[in-house]
UniProtKB/TrEMBL annotation:
Pfam families hit by this protein: Amidohydro_1 (PF01979)
Signal peptide: 1-38
Protein name as it appears in the record: Phenylhydantoinase
InterPro entries in the record: Amidohydro-rel, Metal-dep_hydrolase_composite, Metal_Hydrolase, Metallo-dep_Hydrolase, OTAase-like
Gene3D superfamilies: Metal-dependent hydrolases, Urease, subunit C, domain 1
GO MF annotation: an example: hydrolase activity, acting on carbon-nitrogen (but not peptide) bonds
Record bears the keyword Nucleus: no
Domain Amidohydrolase-related: 103-461
Length: 467
């Protein structure tokens, strides 16, 4: 089944058609390569943040409002916002930035990404874990330069990359790692080939598992152990696959994965550590089973129905959908996976219209970008791809204030405990200054190199095109 040409016209896809789905184990090489980069790069990000930064004459989108403020000033001290007002005194030795009437927003948040999966499928088959480590560095840098100051890594071995970014060795967004996605045998992340022997007769793990991208677990005991292993590594939250997927070959979209008892085991273990479970899920039965088991965030949900959306609203569960990723076939997709992609794409309209009708507000922004650093440069097109169903203000809220609320669900596991996604006193100083008004024309965000005049994360300026 071919994708209608109108899909590409409607979506205005400007990204290259590159595939994905390897696996990896993230090693000490990342820190070594990052250290070399830190020694040889003379970027502003390698310099210590000034004690104070004062931004004047900025029209503020605070992450939750529907409109911009009058021209205001924002004072940053250290890594947080100290004060907001119509006129603020400049502290001694502060770095003063005249926004010139530009729009000031919180840094963007991608709630569903795979920051380590930036290789093609063929590269994944023939690369070692070191290749994934090297690729992750430009990926992280590109995401930050696209304006994304925080991401929720929805599955993968991103723990060392997070540590390198937090230590200042690599430029990149804050990472909320989930660790390897947990799947049942013959589930969404069981990427063994048909030539691989069954593990029941001595077969080994897939490359996907060996590199730390995913783990298979069956039964309550194995699921609990897999969750605990991820938490031991530093996972902020836990990711399960509870239905079939588009990219996987052995599980149709209608399949329910994991029993209710297995999902409850994951939820119980995560809650014992003060955090929550998010689930890859497409069909209504799988989503309902996950919700009744206590899952707090549903990823994708393209085939959901009104009954299940009403249950989500009743149980206060978050909806984390993506649009752009369904607008093209990755090279190498066979007829079966193309058919699944078509069905998932066609379900988007029904899902979003029903969600709007029911009044679901807990919807966040995500891209599910997986393939290459080049592909990541086009991730901002997700902003325009949502305009069929949402206003510009709603889309910006999904990528800022709403997303920040979802990240905070990890409670005491939160590696960044101050507020994210908002412009308010005490929040992290993750700030963008934008040429153009995205509330009027959100397409300005699809050209971040041109239109993001300033990128700040934690009070530190990573880009300043104003001076």
């Amino acid at each position: 089944m071919a994708i209608p040409e109108s899909r590409f016209q409607t979506m205005k896809m400007k990204m290259k058609q590159l595939p994905s789905f390897p696996a990896f184990f993230f090693s000490v090489l990342l820190l070594a390569s990052a250290s070399l980069q830190a020694q040889t790069t003379d970027s502003a990000s390698q310099k210590a943040a000034p004690a104070s930064v004062l931004i004047n004459n900025a029209r503020i989108f605070d992450g939750n409002a529907d409109s911009l403020s009058a021209p205001m000033s924002v004072l940053i001290e250290g890594d947080k916002i100290k004060a907001i007002g119509a006129s603020l005194d400049s502290p001694e030795n502060a770095n003063v930035i005249d926004a010139g009437g530009r729009v000031l927003t919180p840094g963007f948040i991608d709630c569903h990404t795979h920051i380590m999966l930036q290789v093609t499928q063929m590269e994944g088959l023939f690369s070692d874990e070191f290749a994934f480590a090297y690729r992750s560095i430009p990926t992280a840098e590109t995401m930050l330069m696209n304006g994304f100051t925080s991401v929720r890594d929805a599955s993968g071995n991103s723990f060392s990359l997070k540590a390198a970014i937090d230590r200042g060795l690599v430029d990149g967004p804050r990472i909320y790692p989930s660790g390897p996605m947990i799947s049942q045998t013959s589930g969404h992340s069981d990427f063994r080939s048909d030539a691989d022997k069954s593990q029941l007769i001595g077969g080994g793990k897939s490359t996907f598992e060996r590199y730390g991208m995913a783990v298979t677990a069956d039964g309550r005991t194995e699921v609990m152990k897999a969750v605990r292993e991820n938490l031991r590594r530093g996972a902020s939250q836990i990711k399960l696959a509870v239905s079939g997927g588009v990219t996987s070959s052995h599980d149709p979209l209608y399949v329910q994965e994991f029993t209710a008892d297995e999902i409850k085991a994951a939820v119980q273990t995560a809650e014992d550590y003060g955090t929550y479970v998010l689930t890859h899920a497409y069909n209504p039965k799988a989503i309902q089973r996950a919700i009744h088991a206590g899952v707090k965030s549903i990823e994708h949900a393209n085939l959901i129905d009104e009954e299940t959306l009403r249950l989500m609203k009743e149980k206060d569960v978050w909806l984390s959908p993506q649009v752009s990723i369904y607008s093209y076939y990755p090279p190498g997709f066979d007829a079966d996976r193309k058919a699944k992609m078509d069905r998932a794409f066609n379900g988007l309209d029904t899902m979003f219209r029903a969600a709007k009708k029911i009044g679901i507000k807990k919807i966040v922004f995500g891209t599910d970008i997986i393939s290459s650093p080049e592909q990541v440069r086009g991730m901002n097109h997700e902003f325009t791809h949502r305009t069929k169903w949402f206003s510009n203000a709603e889309i910006l809220q999904q990528a800022t204030g709403r997303a920040g609320e979802l990240l905070a669900l990890c409670g005491k596991r939160n590696p960044y405990p101050a507020k994210l996604g908002v412009i308010e006193e005490g929040a992290y100083a993750d700030i963008l200054l934008i040429d153009g008004n995205p509330l009027e024309d959100i397409e300005v965000l699809t050209e971040p190199k041109k239109n993001l005049a300033l990128i700040m994360k934690g009070g530190k300026v990573f880009k300043n095109a104003i001076e």
